[in-house]
Structure formats: structure tokens, C-alpha cells
Amino acid sequence: MSQLIELLQIYGVLIVFGLVLVEQFGLPIPAFPILVVAGALSVDGELMWQLCLLAAVCACLICDLFWFRAGRFYGKRILRLLCKISLSPDSCVNQTEDRFRRFGARSLLVSKFVPGFNTIAAPLSGAIGTEARPFLLYAVTGAALWSGSGILLGVVFHDGVEELLALLETMGGTALSVIAALLALFVALKYIERRRHRARTAMARIEVGELLSLIDGGHDPIIIDARSLTAQGIEAAIPGALVFKACPPEQLMATLDRNRHIVVYCSCPNDVTAAEVAKQFLANGFHRTRPLKGGLDAWNAHHGSGPALDPVTC
Fold first, then answer.
1. Closest by alpha carbon to 294, among 238, 234, 217, 229?
2. d(C-alpha 120, C-alpha 127), whole Å
3. In a designed cystine with 206, which of 37, 145, 176, 290 is the match (CB 3.0 to 4.6 A)?
């Protein structure tokens, strides 16, 4: 442990850069505590807080630009990929897309303080066509606010941080074991949270082929688009689909026949949002409701993605 603290004192700027970089790329390694430690060490002149701040902002900017370009070229696909590899629940993208739409690139000012939102803010900026100049302005400012707040906390509470470091140093290898155990516990809890979330939305799906058979057989199934408004602007809807978020759910359900087949789709991993909406329909007496397996991707695989169409509202 003493060697680790010595490394922080000698290579603190590089360690800050490296940890922030890997965290911003999506690995479950919290980098904020190292910023606090860096701020505490800077009080006694063992580190230069200015260099630590610059290193953290540069690391954030490298990742933000990478995800921004990925979102610009790959759109919704990169968002689904991020949600698949994330330890957050599978609905992480869908829950934050419309929040981003409301505030636009200004969301980048606070995105790094919000777990989950930080993961998708940059690629979502690229996917919806945010201009590079405002993106860079808000991304740099947001990174500076996030990094600076961590360093400032270290400066303000440097006595407490130094006492903690001294305690860890006396604990030797036990301290590293405790830190590793806490990190493993964090990852395990997020994994359990994700499994529980999937279990809550477990239900029978309908395949695209079966949906097409219902349409060809004259059953006239009602197709519900459960995607966020932002996602609807990125990819065209299934023709004739009703937009679930166009009006209050009870208002939409009041206009529908409970005996008809209801097919709900989304564009999120594991059809989580579609399953959640389908459960709402089932709870209100629509017993022929099922989410579409594979969502919009599965539909487009059969038909190809076409130009954006005007949504069918309530």
C-alpha cells in the first residue's frame, strides 16, 4: 500500500488520466475518488492540481469525441451496444433519451454527475445531429466541472483524506484487499440489479414471422411504438404503428379493442421497454398483448429501414 501511495505522489497525473479514461470508456472503475485524492495531495504540494485537472479533462474529451463520432456514424446501434455492455439496467438508454432531447447539448454540463446518463450523452449527441462546436463547448465545460468538483472536495477535506491514506498505509496489503472487495461488491450489485430488472420484464415474445402471419391472415394487429421520442427521430417507425407516448396511456387504451392482438416494440436491448409497456396493456385487460422479439431491428431485418414516416398519434 505504501508503494501505491508513493506511485500516486510520483505518477499521480498519469494515474488520474488513465483511470478517468477507462471509466469514461465505460468500464466500471470509479475515477472520482482518485480526483479527490489528487486534490488532497495537491494541498501539500505533492501534486499540481492544475495538471490533474487538465489530465482529467483531456481524458474525458478523448472519450467524448470518440463516442460522439461513433454516435454520428452508427446512430442507434452504438447506443444499444453501450446499454448491452453497461452494468446498468437495459432500459438505461430509453430512460434518458427524452431528457437529453429536452435540454439538448446543455445536458453535457451535468451528464458526468449522473450514472448511466454519462454513458450515452456523447453518442446520443452525435446520433441526433448535434453540431461539433456546441458539443465541444459543453463537453469541455462539463468535464471541467466534474473533474474540478472532485479535486475541490479533496482540497477542502484534505485532512480527512490524508488520515484515510495513512490508515490504508498502516493496513498494508489488507487495504488493497478491502478496496478490491468493495469494487467486486459494486460490480456484483449492479449485475444483480440488471438480472432482477430482466426478470421483472420476462414474458412471451412474438416473432416477426408470426406478426406478419397475423397481418396476412386479416387479424389486423395493433402495433404500438414504445420508443422514446428521440429514438423515433433517429429511426423510422413500423408503418401504421401507434406512438405510445403521444398521449396518456389510459387515453390510448380507451380507443382500442381489447380483443385485438397488440404488438409492442422498441429499439432497446432485450425489448425491455416494450415488455414494460406490454405489461401495462395486460394489466388493463388487453390479454393478446406481446412485445416484438428483437424490436425494430428484427422488423428492419425483414423489410429494411425506410424513410421516416409521420407517426400515428392518438
1. 238
2. 10
3. 290
